[in-house]
Design brief:
single chain; about 120 residues; mainly alpha; about 0% strand; elongated
Length: about 120
């Protein structure tokens, strides 16, 4: 055992100083690479499956939220349609014309004085 440790240390020092085993390392790496891939495959597969399951559950939750939002927006649209019809009926009863072509003006606010004594009526 002691002899194996001494030989290992000598090989490590020789390789680090002189690069003696660099060609051997390349061949061993090529030989061991498929084994590393096979050993890593289950972990990689589980990671991929976990991501897929998480993504699927996120999509299901997002779909539920969007369905709820769609329901809310549809109910608001129905209410808006009802109000438009009611306004039209009230205008007909009052004989008031629709003012779609009314004149509009846009203005920019220059300043606001927060002093209450400066307010003029």
């Amino acid at each position: 055992m002691f002899l194996a440790v001494i030989i290992s240390v000598a090989a490590i020092v020789a390789d680090s100083r002189f690069g003696v085993f660099s060609h051997v390392r390349v061949y061993l790496s090529s030989l061991v690479s498929p084994l590393q891939y096979i050993a890593n495959a289950p972990s990689s597969l589980l990671d991929t499956m976990s991501t897929q399951v998480q993504t699927r559950s996120d999509l299901i939750e997002q779909t539920k939220q969007q369905e709820q939002q769609l329901f809310t927006l549809r109910s608001r649209l129905l209410k808006m349609d009802h109000l438009e019809h009611e306004n039209q009926r009230l205008r007909e009863l009052l004989g008031s014309p629709v003012h779609n072509e009314s004149r509009k003006m846009v203005a920019e606010l220059l300043s606001v004085d927060s002093d209450p004594s400066a307010i003029r009526y």
